[in-house]
Write a structure and sequence with these properties.
The protein is mainly α and 158 residues long. It has a domain of 90 residues: Arc Repressor Mutant, subunit A (Orthogonal Bundle). The protein is 65% helix and 8% strand. It is built from six helices and three strands, in the order ααβααββαα. The longest helix is centred in the C-terminal third of the chain and has 27 residues. The radius of gyration is 19 Å and the shape is globular.
Length: 158
């Protein structure tokens, strides 16, 4: 078993898996940020763009929901993407209170580069894991995500 690069603090010894996930998530986001910076993007902006490229124009409120983001955060993200010329905000024709966000034609040129960044991030993350290890990693991560989602869901409804 590979030892973690950051020692587990004494107060976290009761949660070594949680500490490892925290460290991994931190390093993953830092690496993603480094790769995305070359494209003029910050982490999570590419996720908004991926959603828009996949499904087309979206209500801003729906983007916030699918990204599991609060209104203020998605508003800042969309504003930054708009300033960069990657999205356009248009008022809904059926409800003036609703803003529709759509990818611009200019953003389509960035799509391939974002795909390349994600391929690079995946390669850096997986390193020399075998196909079997990759499958097992996905299986375990899926179970951990399901555990937390199940525990979190009752709180969301309250």
């Amino acid at each position: 078993m590979t030892e973690p690069t950051t020692p587990v603090p004494v107060t976290a010894h009761g949660g070594p898996v949680s500490h490892a996930i925290f460290q991994l998530a931190r390093l993953h986001k830092l690496t993603a940020g480094q790769l995305l910076r070359r494209l003029g993007l910050h982490p999570n902006q590419e996720l908004v763009m991926m959603r828009l490229w996949d499904v087309g124009p979206q209500k801003q409120v729906d983007l916030a929901a699918i990204m599991e983001s609060d209104s203020a955060t998605i508003t800042r993200t969309v504003q930054r993407l708009e300033r960069a010329g990657l999205v356009r905000k248009i008022p809904s024709t059926s409800d003036r209170r609703v803003t529709i966000v759509e990818p611009t034609p200019a953003s389509l040129a960035l799509r391939h580069e974002v795909e390349q960044v994600w391929n690079d991030l995946e390669a850096r993350t997986l390193g020399d894991l075998s196909d079997d290890e990759q499958e097992e990693t996905l299986r375990v991560l899926g179970r951990l995500e399901a555990n937390l989602a199940e525990a979190f869901e009752p709180q969301r409804r309250s």
